UniProtKB/TrEMBL annotation:
The pyruvate dehydrogenase complex catalyzes the overall conversion of pyruvate to acetyl-CoA and CO(2). It contains multiple copies of three enzymatic components: pyruvate dehydrogenase (E1), dihydrolipoamide acetyltransferase (E2) and lipoamide dehydrogenase (E3). It comes from Porphyridium sordidum. This is Pyruvate dehydrogenase E1 component subunit beta. Its cofactor is thiamine diphosphate. Residues 4-179 form the Transketolase-like pyrimidine-binding domain. SUPFAM superfamilies: Thiamin diphosphate-binding fold (THDP-binding), TK C-terminal domain-like.
Length: 323
């Protein structure tokens, strides 16, 4: 085992896949000489050179289109969005081309492209840099969407995403890059479409992902001290959602709480509730509850910013009220 930061786990995954497969390359703003805004591509330029670690102009629509075209010709590009909200400028390429070309070409083209980078509410990054884009991309047919939450799953999931023949949107939370964990030194790959049982329990199912996993774990520690037994599931795969794992859990606990950083209106939690009602309605003893961020642009002011997102004490209170 080796103790690494999450940004380093992502760098290791990229390096290992570039070494294993010479069709893998990275492109984006400041990914080369600078080593990436969050050091996920640090030193890769020295090892692989200009043709495999490409510094691009500030032109997201153009370089995302370049990556999709490269994927169509047999390469495996990794696009880094310096901040995922910048990729709204490439929304046309991601939706009309990345998501649809395999289908509209009748299967003549595969699009093995990974679009990854930091997102979520950081610390006073302002509204435009604090967006939760997972719900924006969720409606696009043809995409897989993954949200990593630990150094261990970040590495295993990114390696799987790079090897997948479909376009994968890979979300990393800006506040988790400095999270440290022991991970195996040996090569490992994790499934892109499976949820993770973080903690088994029998009283209530808590569904979460990304940074909120850590808030839920913190809340669970308090709940356990008070005699409650929550089951915590990190859904990881935002598209497709692993409804089978969720169903098994709800059949045991009969209650479900969703904790997300996404907006309440049209968020991932809304989709989860729809799927739970469709698939697990008869197993529920109480209506599902979701704790989501406020439906407002994220304030720059630190106190107001904190008030827009969910914190462990709110999770504890919600569980108690449901039980």
């Amino acid at each position: 085992m080796i103790k690494v930061f999450m940004f380093d786990a992502l760098r290791m995954a990229t390096d290992e896949e570039m070494e294993r497969d010479d069709t893998v390359f990275v492109l984006g703003e400041d990914v080369g000489h600078y080593g990436g805004s969050y050091k996920v591509t640090k030193d890769l330029h020295n090892k692989y050179g200009d043709l495999r670690v490409l510094d691009t102009p500030i032109a997201e629509n153009s370089f995302t289109g370049l990556a999709i075209g490269a994927a169509m010709t047999g390469l495996r590009p990794i696009v880094e969005g310096m901040n995922m909200s910048f990729l709204l400028l490439a929304f046309n390429q991601i939706s009309n081309n990345a998501g649809m070309l395999r289908y509209t070409s009748g299967g003549n083209f595969t699009i093995p492209v990974v679009i990854r980078g930091p997102g979520g509410v950081g610390k006073q990054l302002g509204a435009e840099h604090s967006q939760r884009l997972e719900s924006y991309f969720q409606a696009i047919p043809g995409l897989k969407i993954v949200a990593c939450s630990t150094p261990y799953n970040a590495k295993g999931l990114l390696k799987a995403a790079i090897r997948d023949n479909n376009p994968v949107i890979f979300f990393e939370h800006v506040l988790l890059y400095n999270l440290q964990e022991d991970i195996p030194e040996t090569d490992y790959v994790l499934p892109l479409d499976k949820a993770e049982i973080v903690r088994s329990g029998k009283d209530i199912t808590i569904l979460t992902y990304s940074r909120m996993r850590h808030h839920v774990v913190q809340a669970s520690e308090q709940l356990i001290k008070e005699g409650y037994d929550p089951e915590v599931i990190d859904i990881i795969s935002l598209k497709p959602i692993d409804i089978e794992s969720i169903k098994v859990s709800i059949q045991k606990t009969h209650k479900v709480l969703i904790v997300e950083e996404c907006m309440k209106t049209g968020g991932i939690g809304a989709e989860l509730i729809a799927k739970i009602i469709e698939n697990c309605f008869d197993d529920l003893d109480v209506p599902p509850v979701r704790l989501s961020s406020q439906d407002i642009p994220t304030p720059y002011n630190g106190i107001l910013e904190k008030a827009t997102i969910i914190h462990p004490e709110q999770i504890v209170s919600a569980v108690k009220s449901m039980l």
